Amino acid sequence: MSFFRTIRGRLLVNIFLIHAILIGFVIYDLIESQYREMEKQLSSNGKSLAVLLGSNAALPLQNNDISMLKNLIDDIHQIPDVSMVFITDTSGRVRASYPEKYLNETLVDDESKKICLELKKTQNDIYQIKHNDVIDTVKVIRLDGQIIGYCRVILSDATLSETLSNLIKKGAVYAIAAIVLGMLLAWLVIRTMTLRFSVLSDAAKQMANKNFDVQLPSKQYDDEIGIMEEGFASMNRSLQEYISDLSKIGLVRLETSQKYQQALLEWSKLDFENVQSSIQKATEISAQTLSVTRVSFWRMIPDGSMIVCDDLYDTQTGEHTNGVILHGDNFPSYFAALQRGVLIIANDAQNDPMTLEFNELYLKPMNIVSMLDIPIVRQGKVIGVVCYEQVDVLHQWQPDEQDFAMAMASTMSLALEMERRQSLEEHLDYRANHDILTELPNRRLFLDRLEQAIKHSERYQRHVAILFIDLDRFKEINDSLGHLVGDQVLIHVANLMQSQLRNVDTISRLGGDEFCLMVDYLDDAQFVSNIAEKLVQMMQIPICIDQHELYVTCSIGISIYPSDGTTPDMLLRNADAAMYKAKNEGRNSYHFYTQDMTIRAYERVAMESSLRKGLERNEFCVFYQPQLDGYSERLLGMEALIRWNHPERGLVLPDQFISLAVETGLIVAMDHFVMRTAMFQFAQWYREGLQPGVLSLNLTIKQLKQKDFMTILESLLRETQCLSEWIEFEVSEKDMMNHQEEVLYILSQITHMGIRLSIDDFGTGYSSLAYLKRLPVHRLKIDQLFVREVHQNDDDRAITKAIIALSKSLNLSIIAKGVETFEQKEFLIKNGCSQIQGYFYAKPMSAHDIEVSKFTSNK
Description:
- The chain is of the alpha+beta class.
- The protein has 27 helices and 28 strands.
- Strands 20-21-23-24-25-26-27-28 form an eight-stranded mixed barrel, surrounded by five helices.
- Helix 1 (7-56) packs antiparallel against helix 5 (158-208), helix 6 (224-268) packs across helix 10 and helix 12 (474-481) packs across helix 13.
- It starts with 6 loop residues before the first helix and ends with a helix.
C-alpha cells in the first residue's frame, strides 16, 4: 500500500498543508507590515525635504539667485534615495535642477502636467504622488503669501525594493525552517498515535486470510484505541468459538444438503416436453426426499378464485390422483395469503390460524396434522401452489426443508413456464402465418403452400392456378363509411370465399383489399375459369352491414403453373398484372395472364430503376420556355421544365417518365431539383442586370402534401437569394379539384409570401366556379388541347373564348400554352389573351441558349 494512502500518510500530508499555509500567512503579514512602514517613512521623508527646500529657496528664487538655488539642490540630492530635484518659477521653467540637463527647460511630461492640475484643483501647498517606482513630492514656494514657484523632490524606492527582497528571502528561510521543525514534531506525534492502529490492521489481515491465531497488544490503555483493541480481541474469540461450532454442524448439514442436491439433480434430468409427467415425478421426488406423506401440485385459475389439483402423490398408496378443486369462497384467509405470495408453514395444521378453515372439509377427514404450502409466483402473480402434508404425526418444518421445498416449487414453475412458452410459440406461429383481421393465411403461409403445391404438381404433371382477387372501389367504402365498416366487409368477403372452396384450395389475404386463391390438383387449366366466374357472380350479391346495403365487385387476375411461371413470385406477379388488366377493362371481371403484360411490367420496373439512378447521378437538367407578350413580344417570364439526359437514350422528354415519377413518389425529389436549379439561375440573371421576368414552376399535389414543404421553400429562397415576387407556382386544375380542402390552406400560405399562383391545364379539370373564387390564384393557363385546333375547330374556339371571358370576370390574367402557329396567336390576341407560350416563339431551351437567343436579342 502506498504510504500516502495510509492514515499516517494522510495525517502527515494534512498537517503539512495546514502548517505551511499558516506559516505562509504569518510571514506574509510580517513582510507586508514592514514594507508598508518603510514606504510610509520614505513618503514622509519626501514631504520633509520638499518643505525644507521650499522654505530655503523662496528668497533666492525671488532674487533670481541661481547660484544659491544650485547650492540648495546640491545639498538635497546628496541625501540617500533622492534621484531628482527641481525648482521652477510659476511658468514651469526650471531655475535649478538635478540633473542639470533640465535647467531652463519647461517640464511637459504627463506626470508634471497631472501634478500641476492637482495643485490647482486642490489648492494645497504640497502634493505627493507615486509613479514609476518613485515618490514624487511637489511644494508650492510662497513669499509674503504669493506663489513665486515650485520645488519638486523625487525619491527612488530602489532601496525600498531591495529591502523588501531581503525580507522575503529571510521570511522564506524562516518559513522553511518552521515547516521542517513542525513536520518533525508532527511525525513523532502521528507515529505514536498510529502504531497501535497498525497492529490492529495486521491482525485484521491475518483474520481475513482465515488465520485467527493473532497477536494483540497485551498492555491495556483507557483511551478510544484501547476500547477498540479490547473489542477486536473479543470478536476474535467469538469467531474462533463460532468456527468450532460450524465444523460440528457442517457434517450433518452436508449430508442433508447432498440428499437435496441429488433430488434436484434427478429432477433436472427430466424431459420437460411432457409437463404432466414432469410434475408427477417432481411430487414423487419431493415426498421421498422430505419423508412426508403427501405432496400435491395445484394450479390457480387466472382470476384467482379457485385452485385445481393437477397431481397429488400419496406415499402410502404410491398413487397419483388429480381433479380436486378448492374454492376461494370456502377458504378466504388461505386464498388471501396465497395471493400475497405468503409461505404457509403450519407445524400443527389443525390448530394453526392460517389453516383452521381447512379442518372440517379437508384436514380432519384425511387426518393431516402438518402442512407446508409454497406459492409459485411468476411476474408478480401467483399461478399455483405446492403442498407438503404429513399425516398422523406432527412435523416440524426445518429451514433447510423449507429451502428445498421452495427450490422444488421453483423447478415446477419452470415446467409451467415451458408449457406456457410452448403455447405462446404455437400462438405466435399462428399469428405469423395468418391475417389478424380475417384469420386467413397471410402472404408468408400462402407462398409456402404454393411452393409445396408447385413441387407436387411438378412430380405428378398437374397444374396450379393462382387467382389474384382485388375488390373494386373498396377505398370508397373506407372513405365514406369508415374503416370499421370496411373491416366488416373484408371479413364477410373472406368468409364467403372460404365457404365456396375445396379443402385442398388455399385462400389468403395479401393485404388491404387483395386476396389470393390457390387452386391445386388441377388437371384441366380451363376449369379455373369456372371458379373465377363463380367468384365474380358471388360478389355481385349485396352485403348488408350496419343497415348499409353495399355492392362490392371484384377483379380477378389468373396465372397458371407452369405456363405462366415456375416460381411462387412469378406466378403471383403475373396474376397481379392480369388483375390490373381486368380492372382496366371495366372491373367486375377476370382476365388470364399474357406474355405482353410481363414485358410492359418489366419495362416499367426498369424505368423506375433508371429514374432513381438518374436522380443519384445528376442526369436531370432544367430547360426554360419563354413566355412573351403577343403585342410587344416582350419577355414576361419563363417556365422551368425538367429534361433527362439519359446516358443511352439521349434527351428524354417528361411525358415519358413524369407519370411514373408521380406514382412512385420520385416527383418530390424532381420538383425540389427543378425549384433549386431554376431559382439559382434566375437570381444569377437578375444579379447580372438581366430581366428574365417571372419564373413559372410546376407543383404536384405530392409536393404540396409534404409536411415540410413550406420550410423547404423558405430555405430555398434564402439559399438561392431568389425573391418571392420573381416566382409563380403552377398547379394543375385536376390536382386542385381532387384535393380542394387539402391544398387551399397551403396555397394561401404561399401567396402570403408574395409568390403568384397559376392554374395549369385549365379547362380539363371541371372546376367549380364557386371554389375557383376561393382559390388565391392570379392566372389561368389555357391547356394546349384547346389551343391546338382553335383556328379551325368551333368547339375549341368556343371553350377558349369562354375561358378568356371567365378570367376577365374574375380579374385573373390568362396565358395560352402550346401556341405553334401565327393563326393561333392572332386568334388568342384578338380575343383578349396576349400572353403566349409555345413553339411559335421558342422551344424549351437550356439556360445558355436562353441567354444567347433572348437576352442578347433584347440588348
